[in-house]
Amino acid sequence: MNTEEKFIVLQEAVTEACSQKDYCIASDVAASLGFTETEQLRSITLSLMYEYQGSDGRSIVLNFRSYDPSGPFQNLTDINKFKLKLISTSLVEREFSCSYED
Question: Which domain, by its residues, includes 92?
Fold first, then answer.
């Protein structure tokens, strides 16, 4: 499977993850496609990055962020955001974003 095909498969997984409100769907697909997972350390935000470097010199980066926008005396739903990019020599060829609340 080439880099572009992996991007499309992961884009479909992100769409399904947003539809089902379950980020693990995209995470599992990224792992099965050979992506490397890195946790971005932030105080009260879950932030994960998945990266893949294709043999064609292009790369795919998936960022996932989940955070609670609540303030004092508020109980708001968590915000979950995906941002997927296909990158070729520092140029973003394709980009896809999706989000959901839970």
Answer: 3-101
pTM for the structure as a whole: 0.89
Average pLDDT over every residue of 65-80: 89
Alpha-carbon distance values, 41 to 22, 26, 51, 94 (Å): 21, 20, 16, 26
Cα–Cα distance for residue pair 101/89, rounded to 1 Å: 34
For the chain, what is the domain count?
Answer: 1
SS3 74: coil
pLDDT bucket at 79, cuts 50 / 70 / 90: very high
Tell me the two tokens of residue 4: 């572009």
